[in-house]
Amino acid sequence: MHGDARKTWCENLPMPRPLRDMPDDDLMQAYARGDAAAFDELYARHEGALYRFVRRLLGAPLAAQADEVFQDTWARIVAARAGFSPQGAAWRTWAFTIAHNAAMDRLRVSGREIGLEAPGDGSDPLEWLTAEIDATHPSSEDTAFWRAAGRQLLHCLDELPALQRAAFLLHHEDGLTVDELARQLAVTFETAKSRLRYALQKLRGCMRSYLEALEGGA
Amino acid sequence: MSGSQSDLRDARLRRALDHAPDAQLRPDVRTREAVRAAAHRAVAPAAVPWWRRPWPVGERAMPWSAALATVVLGTVITVAWQGREVPSAKPDSPVAVAVPERSREAVPDAVPQTSPQVAPQAPPPVTSKPSSPAPAARRTEAAPRPVAPAPSPVTSAPAGETPAALPEVPAARAPGPAPAAPAAAPAFSPPAAAARAPSQDLRAQAAIRRFELDAAATPLATQLARALMDAPVDGLPFEGPVRERLALAGEPGEPALIELGATQARVTRGPDVRVLRPAPAQLAALREALAQLPSR
Question: How close does chain B come to A29, measured CA to CA in Å?
Answer without folding.
Answer: 12
